[in-house]
């Protein structure tokens, strides 16, 4: 199976914020952003492995800035690390100033996907080789995040989460 780079999964999705997608303060509803990110991330995951992918977990979402009605929102998604059948997808969310066109980072998120066969069983995916410094940093931290996700889901004992434990030693 041929190795891939994070860049090969790079996905960008740009869309407007419409009135039906906002909360009472006229800012983008959080659940709407989660769904948009899920779509962008699933495309990135699919581009990495060329298989059917399912969302396994939402590991981190930081809603650090409100996104007002009428905003142009761009989600950039890229696989940061591939394991056996699962992948971490890292996303950066930007909004664009109408007049200057300048981009501001509004949010970021990390989702995990699993590649599956036609019956929903996990299948092996290609390895990934990070190229840039940012890609290498995200790759290195991904194992820690996977272990945390598995511990929280009750699928791994805390004592076995070696990368997590190393953080506190
Ligand atoms: C995700 C899913 C395929 C995992 O199946 P499973 O029977 O737990 O399979 P395994 O235990 O063999 O795990 C498969 C991989 O998923 C990873 N995984 C499972 N749960 C995870 C979690 N909560 N966070 C991160 N990774 C997870 C495992 O670590 C393993 O990764 P690896 O092969 O890269 O080492 C299965 O739980 C599923 O189909 N869930 C529903 C998915 C879905 O419908 N999503 C849409 C939400 S509506």
UniProtKB/TrEMBL annotation:
One of its GO terms (molecular function) is long-chain fatty acyl-CoA hydrolase activity. GO terms for biological process: acyl-CoA metabolic process; fatty acid catabolic process. This is Acyl-CoA hydrolase. PROSITE patterns: HOTDOG_ACOT. Pfam families: 4HBT. Belongs to the acyl coenzyme A hydrolase family. CDD domains: BFIT_BACH (cd03442). GO terms for cellular component: cytosol. Residues 7-119 form the HotDog ACOT-type domain. Keywords: Hydrolase.
């Amino acid at each position: 199976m041929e190795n891939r780079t994070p860049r090969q999964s790079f996905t960008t999705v740009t869309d407007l914020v419409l009135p039906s997608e906002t909360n009472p303060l006229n800012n983008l509803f959080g659940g709407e952003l989660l769904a948009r990110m899920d779509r962008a991330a699933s495309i990135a995951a699919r581009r990495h492995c060329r298989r059917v992918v399912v969302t396994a977990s939402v590991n981190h979402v930081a809603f650090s800035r409100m996104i007002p009605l009428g905003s142009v929102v761009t989600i950039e998604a890229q696989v940061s690390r591939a394991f056996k059948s699962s992948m971490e997808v890292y996303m950066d969310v930007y909004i664009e100033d109408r007049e200057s066109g300048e981009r501001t980072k509004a949010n970021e998120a990390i989702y995990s996907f699993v590649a599956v066969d036609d019956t929903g069983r996990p299948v092996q995916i290609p390895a990934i080789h990070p190229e840039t410094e940012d890609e290498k940093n995200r790759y290195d931290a991904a194992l820690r995040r996977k272990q945390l996700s598995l511990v929280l889901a009750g699928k791994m004992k805390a004592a076995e989460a070696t990368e997590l434990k190393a953080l506190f030693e």
